[in-house]
Design brief:
Elements lengths: L1 H12 L16 E3 L4 E6 L2 H6 L4 E7 L15 E8 L4 E9 L6 H9 L4 H6 L10 H9 L2
Length: 143
Amino acid sequence: MGKHQARIAADNILGRDVVCTKADGPLAPRVIFTEPQVAAVGHTLASARAEGLNVRAVDHPVGAVAGGSFYGKGVPGLVRLVVDEDRRILAGATFTGADVAEFLHAATIAVVGEVSIDALYASVPSFPTRSEVWLRLLEKYGL
């Protein structure tokens, strides 16, 4: 975020048109580089409810897809999507597990771009990769 904000400040100083995004404040992507990693964008279930959003959480183990085998059998990790039920978009996403920071950019695009969950479901993940967790989450949601 510091790099993003510095670019906005420099553009402003140079007299360029400043493009501010929604990827700030509660929508900012964030990663904790621990083992396991924790990566998130947008709201958590608690923060979305505190904002008065009508949301539902959907969870799935990150390793419970074919691509999970590349990290070893039974490697822990969980993905949670927070879906805004009224607008049918992602309000937030949280990932825990080995190397989950790599999931964050796609989630940031979905949250900041307000991509519909129907469009996300139609976006076919590569097989066999851990990205298939998106398909499993949306199937659990009911698509």
